[in-house]
Amino acid sequence: MISVSNLSYAFKIGKKDKENVVPVLHDVHLHVAKGEIVAIVGRSGSGKSTLLNLISGFIRPEIGEITIGGTKVSGLTESKWAEFRLNHLGFIFQSFQLIPSMTAYENVEFPLVLKGVNEKDRKEKTLEMLKRVGLEPYQNHYPGELSGGQQQRVSIARALVLNPPLILADEPTGSLDSENERELLNFIKELNEDYGITFLMITHDHEVASIAHRKVEIVDGYLKEGRMLHEVQR
Ligand SMILES: Nc1ncnc2c1ncn2[C@@H]1O[C@H](COP(=O)(O)OP(=O)(O)OP(=O)(O)O)[C@@H](O)[C@H]1O
């Protein structure tokens, strides 16, 4: 599903003539199979979000290659990337990233609008997703009128509405209390088992990591498991 090879990344900070190069990831190799739940763990500042942002195409690699579902995404133009993202990836963020001026219904419907789906099909699919996350009665609420757990469920419904085969999650339970966390983790397991959705998640949390089939650890920009695989292959 995901194949990352020889990926290195450095941020360039400061003015062009006095640029400071901050190396963050070093020769990362990572393979995630279809149907896997993989947790990326590591200390703060080790490079987890940078890796997820590279896999999501939000930042572009200069060195290395990223393939998702057979498409070499690291070579796509910005507009092709946006199209690929819409069709293949779902995102869940710690801070939910809902649009505050849109109701729960409108937030879930938004990817269908971007994709140009007609109104009748949009309505059917949006209501189906809201039902699946148990939020049909709250469809006209704005994010500010929902609890943290409910907001995260709206964001999951939005992530799933176009049936992506892969979900990328950055600290998905980071803003939830333990009851909502347990509920979300059960839901992730269910989506994985029933629909074969692949998950790549960043987490600090042992509970979250415990539902993963596999953990990979980033230590100072080096992916532990990835390097081992790479060394075995060589
Ligand atoms: N836009 C940026 N410009 C410059 N340096 C950055 C930028 N974003 C991140 N960094 C640096 O890259 C390193 C890795 O950051 P990253 O956010 O990937 O770590 P992380 O493991 O996700 O941390 P956390 O668990 O705290 O979210 C850090 O040293 C950070 O300061």
TrEMBL record:
GO MF entries: ATP binding
InterPro entries: AAA+_ATPase (IPR003593), ABC_transporter-like_ATP-bd (IPR003439), ABC_transporter-like_CS (IPR017871), ABC_transpr_LolD-like (IPR015854), MacB-like_ATP-bd (IPR017911), P-loop_NTPase (IPR027417)
Keywords of this entry: ATP-binding, Nucleotide-binding, Transport
PROSITE patterns: ABC_TRANSPORTER_1, ABC_TRANSPORTER_2
Domain ABC transporter: 2-234
Domain of life: Bacteria
Keyword tRNA-binding recorded: no
Name by which UniProt lists this protein: ABC transporter ATP-binding protein
Metal-binding keyword on record: no
SMART domains given in the database record: AAA (SM00382)
